[in-house]
Amino acid sequence: MSNDIRSLIEDLAKKAKQASLELAGASTSDKNDALQAIARGLESNRKILLEENQKDIDAAEENGLSEAMVDRLRLTHERIDGMVQGLRQLISLPDPVGLVIEEKKRPNGLSIQKVRTPIGVIGIIYESRPNVTIDCAGLCLKSGNASILRGGKESLHSNRALASVIGQALADSPIPEDSVQLVPTIDREALNHLLTLDEYVHCIIPRGGEGLIRFVAENSRIPVIKHYKGVCNLFVDAEADLEIARQIAVSSKCGRPGVCNAIENLIVDEKIAPAFLPECAKELVEQDCELLVDEKAASLLGDFPTKPATDEHYDEEFLDLRLSIKIVASLDEAISFVNRFGSGHSESIITKNKKRAERFLREVDASSVYWNASTRFTDGFEFGLGAEIGISTDRLHARGPMGLEELCTYKYWVTGNGQWK
């Protein structure tokens, strides 16, 4: 590793640590003013942001990235509006820092309060989507954390432009300017060294493909909150409303296939498969979705272009217009399939039967489970969290969309009146 990169990353981490100590005591109004300044900066710098993003789009298309991946990378006026709206929603949310979670009075007179407090310095490692730069910076600021952002090479120009907007906003605010820093190089050595700096960085959150997340988890000395792949399943039960099921299946696959909360597997009860599957497949194929099917589904879809599905397909996060289809004989088989192939992200059942739905909700192992709704709602903004810093598929500390509260830990405030033993 070159000394230049080592020095660059260590200096960045040291500055983040100092900024985090100052930011922990920042007032809610100062944090909100900084968020408002970033929002105004996004609005006034639209032209530059779109021009820089177009450089990334052009490079992605030249390098043969899939249409879905290019879509993840693209900024539009609507998506800039979404980032601005997310920041302003954060402003409207209560400040989690300083909230008393629990309070006890001990027999010896000690008052013990469990108080929500920032984690400190959070490193976010992410790919593709430039809006993550704003979402994560905003969430960390409001929750009192300094952030170190390391985006992917495919979004370098976009991220630099967005970081410049953030830097200017912080420079004009009482918030420490080093509260948000973008790693200025895409050299892999910079990431490798960042993952060793447990003296300065308190948590790492990787967002991206499974390969990136496994690399970070296996090489980090710093605690990692993982957002593994989004293999989401939709189960159409024997007692489903077939029109609702069709609408949800098509929209949750084809709406934005390159996002982690899109479905990758469609599971259909054999009792309603003949009535449901051909009509649903027709609409999926019309939207250029490739269908990978088991033998039972193949027999029902003989007039459609399909390919055989394998266990490897059921386990794969396509992030593209591809969908695996499985026909099952029972709710038990559906739950077993989901728990085997799902990634713990989001799962949904379509049914009019409350008892069957509640069994699915209880027994499926995932961070978010749905009844008669699309998995596409697994999102910080949709959950009212003001965007999210990631969707944790872990079980400890945080699970599902991570908003302000999940970016905090706690400390104990203990007050006495002279107790010494």
Summarize the model shown.
The chain has helices spanning 3-23, 28-44, 46-62, 67-73, 77-92, 131-142, 156-171, 188-194, 210-219, 242-254, 273-286, 295-300, 311-314, 331-341, 354-363, and strands at residues 100-105, 111-118, 121-126, 146-150, 180-182, 203-207, 232-236, 263-269, 290-293, 306-308, 322-328, 346-350, 368-371, 391-392, 400-401, 408-415. By secondary structure, it is of the alpha/beta class.
Output the keywords.
421 residues, alpha/beta, Aldehyde Dehydrogenase, Chain A, domain 1, Aldehyde Dehydrogenase, Chain A, domain 2, 2 domains, 7-stranded parallel β-sheet, 4-stranded parallel β-sheet, 43% helix, 19% strand
Q: Mind explaining what this structure looks like?
A:
This protein is an alpha/beta fold. The protein folds into two domains: 3-225 and 402-415, Aldehyde Dehydrogenase, Chain A, domain 1 (3-Layer(aba) Sandwich); 232-377, Aldehyde Dehydrogenase, Chain A, domain 2. It is 43% helix and 19% strand. The protein contains 15 helices and 16 strands. The protein has helices at 3-23, 28-44, 46-62, 67-73, 77-92, 131-142, 156-171, 188-194, 210-219, 242-254, 273-286, 295-300, 311-314, 331-341, 354-363; strands at 100-105, 111-118, 121-126, 146-150, 180-182, 203-207, 232-236, 263-269, 290-293, 306-308, 322-328, 346-350, 368-371, 391-392, 400-401, 408-415. Strands 10-9-11-8-7-12-13 form a seven-stranded parallel beta sheet, with helices on both faces. The protein has a four-stranded parallel beta sheet with strand order 5-4-3-6, with helices on both faces. A three-stranded antiparallel beta sheet has the order 1-2-16, with no helix packed on it. Helix 10 links the parallel strand 7 and strand 8 (263-269). Helix 1 (3-23) packs across helix 8 and helix 2 packs antiparallel against helix 5 (77-92). The radius of gyration is 23 Å and the shape is globular. The N and C termini lie far apart (52 Å).
